[in-house]
Amino acid sequence: MRDHGGDLDRARALYGGTDWIDLSTGINRVPYPVTALTPHAWAALPMARDLEALEQAAGRAFGTAGTVVALPGAQAAIQLLPRLDRPGRAAVLVPSYNEHAAALAAQGWAVEAAPDIAAMAGADLAVVVNPNNPDGRCWAPATLAELAGRVGRLIVDESFGDADPSLSLAPALPVLGERVVILRSFGKFYGLGGVRLGFALAGPETAARLRVLAGPWAVGGPAIAIGHAAYCDAEWQARTAARLCDDSARLQAYVAAAGWPAIGATPLFVTVETGDARAAQDRLARARIWTRAFPYSTGWLRLGLPGNRDEWERLVVALSVGGQAVLHNSDRAKFST
């Protein structure tokens, strides 16, 4: 098994308890409000018109005129993409979400770790996560568009990008053609990871091949209904993006006050340098707060954003040396209840 966040089973086995705050995944802890679904969504095979409506709504939200392919999570797209081309040399910008390299290697690709964009030139396939997980690095769309012309195929994983549309390559997709595929996640920004919904944005020929590889009824009726409602809700999207950006800045201030400066951040997580990540993770775990440490770093710890006032209180107490909450009254009213 590859190392991932969200492994609360391990946390509970090590520390006990059930009242955990899971900050290990970077998933929005104030999820989109799901209303009751129709019996049709649960009982019938998904209809083509409903899937098309979802993909059109998602495309409008992403700001793209490219073809949008709904899949059972961005992870499903990661598993399919190595099968689009004959295996060759793949460059993955590191550090990165570890499933990209693993999926490519499993399909026979020779995977190289690229420390920067310049090192990716000439690769048959290049993978960039933007914003990057876990260090929060970002690249301008113009930089990635230029890279697309220097590699055989470019994969841009925008799973953490919903709160900052200015970073997205999606609007330029029709100009970039078939050599670029963009991945988007539904579960992170909308806080509904269990729905298992994601998208690949691509040129029409590449999109058609991905549909064949995914097979029929790749996305279930409940995911189609929930996703369609969420992507049509522009007011919720704008309000949530603003809140996440504010809360990310606030979290950076709190961890810095605890002696853990941020080495990178997005509106969905903050990654800090602790000096001893396992000790820092243990400190928070004893307060039933689960975070993400990384096997390749002794100091990095990633924290998602708490979801409501009580969760913020618990985190601030756990971070404070004296065990006293330092959550200011001016902040309390800003946090979700």
Short description:
The chain is α/β, with parallel strands linked by helices. It has two domains: 8-31 and 235-332, Aspartate Aminotransferase, domain 1 (Alpha-Beta Complex); 39-232, Type I PLP-dependent aspartate aminotransferase-like (Major domain) (Aspartate Aminotransferase, domain 2, 3-Layer(aba) Sandwich). The protein has helices at 8-15, 39-43, 48-62, 74-80, 99-106, 141-148, 173-176, 204-214, 221-231, 234-257, 277-285, 309-319, 329-332; strands at 21-22, 67-71, 89-93, 110-114, 125-129, 153-157, 180-185, 198-202, 262-266, 269-273, 289-290, 292-293, 300-304.
How many individual β-strands? 13
Report low-confidence residues grouped into runs of 5 or more: 322-327
Largest sheet: 7 strands, mixed
Oligomer: single chain
Query: What is the structural class?
Result: alpha/beta
Task: Report what the structure shows.
There is one protein chain. With about 325 residues, the chain is an alpha/beta fold. The protein folds into two domains: about 120 residues, Alpha-Beta Complex (Aspartate Aminotransferase, domain 1), CATH 3.90.1150.10; about 190 residues, Aspartate Aminotransferase, domain 2 (3-Layer(aba) Sandwich), CATH 3.40.640. About 35% of the residues lie in helices and about 15% in strands. The chain has a seven-stranded mixed beta sheet with strand order 2-8-7-6-5-3-4, sandwiched between helices. Strands 9-10-13-12 form a four-stranded antiparallel beta sheet, covered by helices on one side. Helix 5 links the parallel strand 3 and strand 4. The radius of gyration is 20 Å and the shape is globular. About 0% of the residues have low confidence.
